[in-house]
Specification:
Blueprint lengths: L21 H10 L5 H34 L4 H29 L1 H19 L5 H28 L6 H30 L2 H14 L10 H6 L3 H17 L27 H33 L5 H29 L1 H11 L1 H10 L4 H19 L2 H7 L3 H32 L2 H22 L8 H4 L2
Helix pairs in contact: 1-9, 2-3, 2-5, 2-6, 2-7, 2-10, 3-4, 3-5, 3-16, 4-5, 4-7, 5-15, 5-16, 6-7, 6-11, 10-11, 10-14, 10-16, 10-17, 11-14, 12-14, 12-17, 13-14, 13-17, 15-16, 16-17
Length: about 475
């Protein structure tokens, strides 16, 4: 008999000993865990819903080339329709981020999905610009609440080791939703009209709703809200799963005991969090003004300015989305090595280069726009899709959902401002000035990131935020 077998510490059992710091103990036990089967599937289930969230957000962009002619829309009306969903998302991000701190992550996630799916149905019955603006606004409230709360949830379920890669591979699902919308738009809209975008996006979104019932609440949130017994059961089951899979668990080490404080939005503007809050808001706004101003307008731009066929216009927009996904996957595998601050600074400085070249050339051909605007979009997309990771890392559990939600509200402001800016500049000054303006916004984002952003790679959530 081999008596030299390694000892596998048993999971901590409920009531085995008094726990002086329940929140710190739960966090320490999660930090020592590998990615278990339960956490892996939790990411995939939430990611599936996020896929359809991404599809819903961009579906209107591929319907718009048809709606512009069918409803005789002006550039200003087009910009408002594209922007109303993002304005709704601003409200949803703020409200549901706050609500998730009060009642938990999963209840909020389920409600937000029900909301944006129901508005998908409503969009099918829109008879004009006013109705579409209203439905997209309400739908935006649901989509705006889902992503930041889901991001907080995923971050709270995993340890610091490899957190960037694990989380960003989940975030790629949002980008794949954008690509899926492009594919549906390319094949379905020319044949079946703009309503096909909403019909196709409806069925799989409904199928995702029952999967929410297989998920468990965030143990970090439970512990932070004096529900240690529930958190302990969830973490104990994760520990059992890790041991069953053959992993050896080290003794939990409490690196930093989190402060026992209730959630209060005012703390976002106090102490170390003031600089973090203002800098992440600026990063959200700068990156999404450019990214969504570009991607939502491109199909219409190709159609109206360059008079390309509808299917070609949609296909070019789809190629830009694919480029963004490729860049995002590249980022997901490298950001843990490069670091968040260094990556964001580099992306903010590189993306203006093709935009300025495009402005200098005059943006006189669709190929120029496809290549250069597409390259800039791909670079910026590595920032936009990973800021949910960074936002969730710079706040403690008591502020994570509301901090991420408040930050992503500036995402919505930028996303709504981008299409409006494009419509205004195209009507009054010319297309090349759109790209000059976007380049200036990105340079400002680079300066703010260099001066105020903090590095978070390889640090536990408790180390980063007391």
């Amino acid at each position: 008999m081999n008596i030299m077998q390694p000892i596998r510490p048993e999971p901590i059992r409920p009531h085995s000993a008094p726990v002086a710091d329940p929140q710190g103990e739960i966090s320490a036990r999660l930090e020592r865990l590998p990615i278990t089967r339960e956490v892996f599937w939790a990411r995939n289930i939430v990611g599936a819903a996020t896929f359809f969230d991404g599809y819903t957000v961009i579906a209107i962009a591929y319907a718009m080339p048809v709606l512009v002619k069918e409803w005789s829309l002006t550039p200003s009306e087009t910009g408002m329709i594209l922007s109303m969903g993002y304005i709704g998302q601003l409200i949803g991000a703020l409200f549901f981020g706050w609500l998730a701190e009060k009642i938990g992550r999963l209840k909020v996630l389920l409600f937000t999905i029900l909301l944006f799916v129901s508005m998908d149905v409503a969009c099918l019955f829109a008879a004009g610009a006013g109705a579409m603006m209203a439905f997209r606004f309400v739908q935006g409230i649901g989509t705006g609440g889902e992503v930041p709360v889901a991001s907080a949830y995923i971050n709270e379920m995993i340890s610091s080791k490899g957190r960037g890669k694990f989380f960003l591979l989940y975030e790629v699902m949002f980008l794949l939703g954008l690509v899926g919308a492009g594919l549906i738009g390319y094949f379905m809209v020319p044949a079946y009209g703009w309503k096909a975008m909403f019909v196709v996006g409806l069925v799989p979104a409904i199928l995702m709703i029952p999967l929410r019932w297989f998920l468990k609440e965030s143990p970090r949130w439970l512990a932070a809200n004096d529900r240690y017994a529930e958190a302990d059961i969830i973490v104990t089951n994760l520990e059992k799963s890790a041991l069953k899979a053959g992993h050896t668990l080290a003794e939990p080490k409490i690196v930093s005991a989190p402060q026992r404080r209730s959630s209060n939005w005012k703390e976002l503007f106090q102490g170390i969090y003031l600089k973090r809050t203002l800098s992440i808001w600026a990063m959200w706004f700068a990156s999404y003004t450019v990214a969504n101003g570009t991607i939502t307008w491109l199909p219409t731009l190709y159609r109206q300015v360059f008079n390309l066929p509808l299917q070609t216009s949609i296909f070019y927009g789809f190629l830009t989305s694919v480029g963004g996904v490729v860049a995002a996957i590249f980022c997901a595998f490298l950001i843990d090595k490069v670091g968040r601050k260094r990556w964001y600074t580099g992306a903010f400085l590189l993306a203006p280069i093709p935009l300025l070249v495009l402005a200098w050339l005059g943006a006189t051909s669709p190929i120029q726009v496809l290549v250069l605007a597409g390259l800039a979009y791909a670079i910026v997309q590595t920032v936009t899709f990973s800021l949910y990771l960074y936002s969730a890392e710079i706040y403690p559990t008591r502020l994570r959902a509301i901090g991420t939600g408040a930050g992503s509200a500036w995402l919505r402001l930028g996303s709504s401002a981008g299409p409006i800016v494009v419509g205004f500049l195209m009507s009054s000054m010319g297309i090349q000035y759109v790209f000059v303006s976007f380049a200036a916004i990105l340079v400002l984002g680079a300066a703010i990131t260099m001066l105020f952003a903090v590095e978070t790679k390889d640090k536990s959530l408790e180390e980063l935020s007391p």
